[in-house]
Amino acid sequence: MLVEVALSLPILVILIIGIIIYGAWLGTASAVQQLANEAARAALAGISSDERSALVADAVHNGVAGSPLLRAELMHVATAQNGAFYSVAVTYDVGHSPLFTASPVPLPMGQIRRSAVIKLGSL
């Protein structure tokens, strides 16, 4: 019995750690998407491009401050307007996050990039 436990316990521990790390990665990806959605919604209140950019920056700052999974220094935000559409792209560098650098299991990618697009002037 002791031999079976000695052989199966390391595999079970790595499996549990992998589940926790992947759960944190999926939670981070969801938080980044939600942050992009909230920033795009905030941009609707802006009249000019500069005001929209400031509203997006404020929404991202407030969202990062309220999230235990995200760090502001690993976040990059890009905005663009194409005609009547305004897009917000949020990129989070998980490759430099302390939570994911020590992972014993390989993760999907080094960056999580999510975006949201809104139509300006519509109700």
Quick synopsis:
This protein is 51% helix and 21% strand.
Describe it.
By secondary structure, the chain is α+β, with helices and mostly antiparallel strands. It has one domain (2-119). It contains three helices and three strands, in the order ααββαβ. It has helices at 2-43, 49-65, 98-101, and strands spanning 75-82, 85-93, 111-119. Strands 1-2-3 form a three-stranded antiparallel β-sheet, with helices on one face. A hairpin with a 2-residue loop joins β1 and β2 (85-93). α1 runs antiparallel to α2. The mean pLDDT is 89.
Class derived from helix and strand content: alpha+beta
Can you write the helix and strand succession as a string? HHEEHE
Mean pLDDT: 89
**Tally of contiguous helical segments:** 3
Q: How does the major sheet shape up?
A: 3 strands, antiparallel
Count of extended strands = 3
How many domains would you count in the coordinates?
A: 1
| Binned strand content | 15-25%
Strand order of the largest sheet: 1-2-3
Which assembly state applies to the chains in this document? single chain
Low-pLDDT ranges: none
